[in-house]
């Protein structure tokens, strides 16, 4: 198994990154939140999980080991494959996933594309005793950084994906009303990408 990949970022697309490792370009499937942290030409180290199928060999890259472990554990629930698992870690932080499962929050899980009510109930039933409690310190909304922090992250992510600074700024403004009290950078980045693809 490939546990992690370290190398120079050769390319970043809408859903993957290519890291050059010893003269070989390895494509890693990544969430928008992970892609937003990568810059072409810069070194990066990403924990990875390899999914082997009869007709494919896919390597998924993650922001950290916690995200990777959630990706792997949710796949042990019946009906959850790598695509749904990746959607889960794209939409929710690892602690949000733990919280949703331990508190039986079906609504939170159904916000993930590809998970319906029955799927969410099955995930909760099968993983409740194994997922563990949230590990981080849950910040109250009042102590979260100012909204401008997410603006910078989303804009940098869009520029990293090849959009101009001006286009990126427009897309950030378009999604700003959706930010709310606790901006979800990954979700806002995806929403911004949708507005740009429509333009």
TrEMBL record:
Query: Which keywords appear in this protein's UniProt record, sorted alphabetically?
Result: ATP-binding, Cytoplasm, DNA damage, DNA recombination, DNA repair, DNA-binding, Helicase, Hydrolase, Nucleotide-binding
Places the protein is found? Cytoplasm
Q: Where does the Helix-hairpin-helix DNA-binding motif class domain lie? A: 72-91, 107-126
Establish whether keyword Cytoplasm is in the entry: yes
Q: Which InterPro entries match?
A: DNA_helicase_Holl-junc_RuvA_I, Hlx-hairpin-Hlx_DNA-bd_motif, NA-bd_OB-fold, RuvA, RuvA_2-like, RuvA_C, RuvA_C_sf
Segments for region (Domain III): 145-199
Main localization, broad class: cytoplasm
Q: Which GO terms describe its cellular component?
A: cytoplasm; Holliday junction helicase complex; Holliday junction resolvase complex
Q: Which GO terms describe its biological process?
A: DNA recombination; DNA repair
Q: Which Pfam families match?
A: HHH_5, RuvA_C, RuvA_N
- What GO molecular function annotations does the UniProt record carry, in alphabetical order? ATP binding; four-way junction DNA binding; four-way junction helicase activity
Task: Describe, as the record does, how this protein assembles with itself and its partners.
Answer: Homotetramer. Forms an RuvA(8)-RuvB(12)-Holliday junction (HJ) complex. HJ DNA is sandwiched between 2 RuvA tetramers; dsDNA enters through RuvA and exits via RuvB. An RuvB hexamer assembles on each DNA strand where it exits the tetramer. Each RuvB hexamer is contacted by two RuvA subunits (via domain III) on 2 adjacent RuvB subunits; this complex drives branch migration. In the full resolvosome a probable DNA-RuvA(4)-RuvB(12)-RuvC(2) complex forms which resolves the HJ.
Q: What is known of its domains?
A: Has three domains with a flexible linker between the domains II and III and assumes an 'L' shape. Domain III is highly mobile and contacts RuvB.
Described by its record, this protein's role is as follows: The RuvA-RuvB-RuvC complex processes Holliday junction (HJ) DNA during genetic recombination and DNA repair, while the RuvA-RuvB complex plays an important role in the rescue of blocked DNA replication forks via replication fork reversal (RFR). RuvA specifically binds to HJ cruciform DNA, conferring on it an open structure. The RuvB hexamer acts as an ATP-dependent pump, pulling dsDNA into and through the RuvAB complex. HJ branch migration allows RuvC to scan DNA until it finds its consensus sequence, where it cleaves and resolves the cruciform DNA.
Instruction: Report the sequence similarity comment from the record.
Output: Belongs to the RuvA family.
Protein name, per record = Holliday junction branch migration complex subunit RuvA
Q: Which organism is it from?
A: Nocardioides exalbidus
């Amino acid at each position: 198994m490939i546990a992690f990949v370290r190398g120079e970022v050769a390319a970043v697309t809408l859903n993957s990154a290519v890291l050059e490792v010893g003269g070989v370009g390895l494509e890693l499937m990544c969430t928008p939140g992970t892609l937003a942290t990568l810059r072409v030409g810069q070194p990066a180290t990403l924990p990875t999980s390899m999914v082997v199928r009869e007709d494919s060999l896919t390597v998924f890259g993650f922001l950290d080991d916690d995200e990777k472990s959630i990706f792997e554990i949710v796949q042990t629930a019946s009906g959850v494959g790598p695509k749904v698992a990746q959607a889960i870690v794209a939409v929710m932080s690892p602690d949000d996933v733990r919280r949703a499962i331990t508190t039986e929050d079906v609504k939170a899980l159904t916000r993930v594309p590809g998970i319906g009510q029955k799927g969410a109930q099955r995930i909760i039933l099968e993983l409740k005793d194994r997922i563990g409690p949230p590990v981080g310190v849950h910040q109250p909304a009042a102590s979260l950084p100012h909204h401008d922090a997410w603006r910078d992250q989303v804009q940098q992510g869009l520029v990293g994906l090849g959009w101009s600074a001006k286009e990126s700024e427009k897309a950030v403004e378009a999604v700003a009303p959706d930010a709310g009290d606790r901006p979800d950078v990954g979700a806002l980045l995806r929403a911004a990408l949708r507005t740009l693809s429509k333009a």
